[in-house]
Write a structure and sequence with these properties.
The complex is a heterodimer. Chain A is an alpha/beta fold. Chain A has six helices and seven strands, in the order βαβαββαβαβαβα. Helices cover 40% and strands 8% of the residues of chain B. The longest helix of chain B has 16 residues. Chain B has a three-stranded antiparallel sheet with strand order 2-1-3. Chain B has five helices and three strands. The chains are: A alpha/beta, B mainly alpha.
Chain lengths: 208, 125
């Protein structure tokens, strides 16, 4: 048993199979940077899509006063799944690319282990909002620099400087189409999470 | 779907039944449960026949969640927006037909164990 799931409403625990524990990692970055490709490369299922229906009420709270017609938008999010072991499942959620859907990011990042921010060297600025968001929110992340064939060659140090990252934030060069490469990005993130965790919880709490 | 006029009815045309009809106009679940994307839903019981307020979509969810599923997968498989699925799940929770298991709130020790398990799982990919 890895955890005591928070108590739920109603009976039925004995009859149904035990509910698995689910954890999530977010994949963020600008439009077209390869979020869904990365999710698809490592997921055991073809990426699934959920849609959130938005009304103007949820998009902006300050300037909708007096606007009569309600607009409805749908935001699609792709996600994939990796079964870690029986009873423990990791979900990877691609975040909506557009900045105006920040409130969805709040929901997505709640309870997330961490995030991958994908960067494209041809349009590095596209990932600034995601970097800012996760830094402000205190959600640990790694930068995955998706190396497109016609992209410029930068070193990870140059990327780090350009993004003004904290010194401990890992930067990984990757090709999100490659499963092995996507796997490396994710393992780098989880190692980073572990090192943060160990720094925050010293004093021999590590028995493994 | 076949028959005259069916050429207008496909995925691209959108659903025939509008979301607000499925939820009878409600935008939020009745029960005080937020239903995170990775909250795991398990079927706890089957409704008595003719239970008021339980429609075909509710039954589809119950069928699906005999094998526990996260909210995001339910929405994706039902091809329904999350907001709609959350309302339907709220109904089912209200009728005690499902149980909802929220993502674990970890103590530091189990968090570390969780991270190590995830790391090993990823390395084994």
């Amino acid at each position: 048993m890895v955890s005591k799931p928070s108590e739920n409403a109603g009976p039925g625990e004995d009859s149904a199979p035990a509910a698995p524990v689910a954890v999530k990692i977010l994949v963020a970055g600008g439009f077209g940077v390869g979020k869904t490709t990365l999710v698809g490369a490592v997921s055991e299922i073809r990426p699934l899509q959920t849609e959130e229906l938005l009304t103007d009420r949820s998009v902006g709270v300050d300037d909708t006063e007096g606007i009569e017609q309600k607009t409805t938008t749908t935001v699609a999010m792709d996600f994939g799944r990796i079964t870690i072991r029986d009873g423990l499942v990791l979900y990877l959620f691609g975040t909506p690319g557009q900045d105006r859907f920040w409130f969805m990011w709040d929901e997505l990042s709640y309870g997330a282990l961490g995030a991958v921010v994908l960067a494209d060297t041809r349009r590095l600025a596209d990932c600034f909002p995601a970097v800012d968001y996760f830094e402000n929110r205190g959600l640990p992340f790694v930068i995955g620099v998706n190396c497109f064939d016609d992209g410029y060659d930068y070193t990870t140090e140059e990327i780090r400087d350009a993004l003004d990252l904290r010194p401990d934030t890992p930067v990984v060069l990757c090709d999100v189409r490659e499963r092995a490469s996507g796997k490396e990005v994710l393992t780098t993130l989880v190692k980073h999470l572990l090192s943060i965790h160990e720094a925050q919880n010293p004093a021999g709490a590590t028995a493994g | 779907m076949t028959g005259p006029g069916s050429e207008w009815l496909d995925d691209e045309a959108g659903p025939i039944v509008r979301s607000y009809a499925l939820t009878r106009g409600r935008a939020r679940p009745a029960a005080g449960e937020g239903f995170d994307m990775i909250t795991i839903v398990s079927t706890a019981a089957r409704p008595r026949s003719g239970s008021p307020g339980i429609g075909p979509e509710h039954l589809d969810i119950l069928e699906m969640c005999v094998q526990p599923q996260p909210v995001a997968e339910i929405a994706a498989r039902m091809k329904l927006p999350l907001v709609v699925v959350r309302v339907l799940l709220g109904d089912l929770l209200h009728h005690r037909l499902i149980t909802a298991t929220r993502p674990p709130q970890e103590s530091p020790l189990s968090k570390e164990r969780l991270l190590r398990e995830v790391l090993h799982g990823l390395q084994a990919l």
